[in-house]
Specification:
It is a single chain. The chain is an alpha/beta fold. The chain contains 10 helices and 8 strands. It has helices at residues 56-64, 90-93, 98-105, 118-129, 148-160, 164-174, 178-189, 224-232, 249-252, 254-264, and strands at 5-14, 17-26, 40-43, 68-71, 111-116, 134-140, 210-215, 237-242. The protein has an 8-stranded mixed β-sheet, with helices on both faces. Strand 7, helix 8 and strand 8 (237-242) form a beta-alpha-beta unit. Helix 1 (56-64) packs parallel to helix 10. The longest helix is centred in the middle third of the chain and has 13 residues, at 148-160. It is globular, with a radius of gyration of 17 Å.
Length: 269
């Protein structure tokens, strides 16, 4: 039950900046904060934040009986602003910056990763970089490479966000950082220099079990994306392509996604 979930906010020091994080913990476990089971760390999408996960972290916490942690990357949500443009290697860099700071400050040892969209790409890099402590990985709507559907979806989004109403909605979650957030997403992914980016080199270094979730109608990536993640992952991988589902399965079909993750984690300490 969601009312049996405790929440706690944290501020993470990362390279002279502050990152905002939230923790959801089940009540009534052997340890008051649920530290007897490996926690799940969420990595948000290109326009995301802790708040934009909405009810999903609490539902995941209740469904798995595990602590769930989410944080706003630098430049997003309540975290400090990012100075300048994102570097083209920003997906790989997150494993050694914001994510690593979260692990250190909250004294997280072993962990499970759940990453949505670009957060899934980052989760792959985090799983590879911290392979000794990552016991399982879930990617949802992650891109493994830039394909025509990705570009078309971004072009459509660029037109959509010319609407002031859409920009105002973004500012609700990112405040004065909203314009930077939008450019960090669309500008980076449509940069010709980014077109050759791929997860191919890093996926074989992912040693843990992997669950790959993807909507069949995802507007930013065809089923070729999850199929490649599943094929190249170094650990055992299971690919779940959800029919009649677009880019945000955890919002479109929350019970189904929570159930998939819960069953996937059965037997994980």
């Amino acid at each position: 039950m969601l009312h049996d979930i405790d929440t706690r906010d944290h501020w993470i020091e990362a390279g002279g900046a502050r990152l905002y994080a939230r923790e959801w913990s089940p009540r009534g476990l052997t340890s008051p904060s649920g530290r007897d089971r490996t926690p799940i760390v969420l990595l948000h999408d290109s326009l995301g934040s802790v708040e934009l996960w909405r009810e999903f972290p609490a539902a995941l916490c209740a469904g798995t009986g595990r602590r769930v942690l989410a944080y706003d990357r630098l430049g997003f949500g309540r975290s400090d602003a990012y100075s300048g443009r994102l570097p083209l290697d920003f997906i790989a860099v997150e494993a050694e910056t914001g994510f690593a700071a979260l692990l250190r400050q909250l004294e997280i040892g072993r962990f499970i990763l759940f990453g949505h969209s670009v957060g899934g790409c980052m989760a792959v890099n985090c799983a590879a970089r911290h392979a000794g402590d990552c016991v399982a990985l879930v990617t949802e709507s992650a891109q493994a490479f830039v394909e025509d559907r990705t570009v078309a979806g971004l072009e459509e989004a660029r037109e959509l966000f010319k609407d002031p109403v859409q920009r105002e909605r973004l500012a609700k979650y990112h405040g004065g950082k909203a314009e930077w957030v939008l450019e960090a997403w669309i500008g980076t992914w449509l940069d010709p220099a980014f077109s050759s980016w791929s997860l191919r080199p890093v996926l074989p270094r992912v040693e843990c079990p992997v669950l790959v979730i993807h909507g069949a109608e995802d507007e930013y990536g065809s089923p070729r994306q999850p199929e490649l993640i599943g094929a190249l992952a170094g650990g055992p991988a299971r690919v779940e392509i959800m029919a009649d589902t677009r880019h945000v399965p955890h919002r479109e079909r929350p019970a189904q996604v929570t159930g998939l993750v819960s069953r996937f984690l059965d037997g994980v300490a």
